[in-house]
Amino acid sequence: MIAVPVGFLFFAALGAAARAEITHRMPGTYGVPLATLLVNVVGSFVLGLLTGSVGLAALTVVGSGGLGALTTYSTFVTSCHQMGDRHPGQGVAYVAVTIVAGVFAAEFGLALSS
């Protein structure tokens, strides 16, 4: 079944390109990387939506491939570390907002798909 690996690569390329474009067009404000927050929360929502509405192959291709490339844990961690060095409270707030918004977005997506 070659469709899943090819689809995975295709959606991963789309997700990475979308993240790069969003990051380029949406610079941080007051040292807060809004693009990273946006892609991670949107990715959480769409993954929740997909989890309740598609099969395993589509979830692998679009969820792991496309959304895995769209969202970015490494940039999130780097941003948190940099903010924490400059303004510890800002770094902690960014972590909290990202986690809470991501969980709520995923739950909302899952609820909509049911």
In short:
With 114 residues, the chain is mostly helical. The protein has helices at 3-25, 34-51, 56-70, 73-86, 88-113.
Helix content: over 70%
Computed structural class = mainly alpha
Strand portion: under 5%
SS elements, strand count: 0
Uncertain runs: none
Shape type:
globular
**What's the order of the H and E elements?**
HHHHH
How far apart are the first and last residues' alpha carbons, in Å? 29 Å
Overall mean pLDDT stands at 93
Question: Tell me about the biggest sheet?
Answer: none
Rg over CA atoms, rounded to whole Å, is 15 Å
How many distinct helices? Answer: 5
Write the layout of secondary structure elements.
Elements: H1 3-25, H2 34-51, H3 56-70, H4 73-86, H5 88-113
Helix pairs in contact: 1-2, 1-3, 2-3, 2-5, 4-5
Characterise this structure:
The chain has 114 residues and is an all-alpha fold. 84% of the residues lie in helices and 0% in strands. It is built from five helices and no strands. Helix 2 packs parallel to helix 5 and helix 4 runs antiparallel to helix 5. The two termini are 29 Å apart.
How would you describe this structure in keywords?
5 helices, mainly alpha
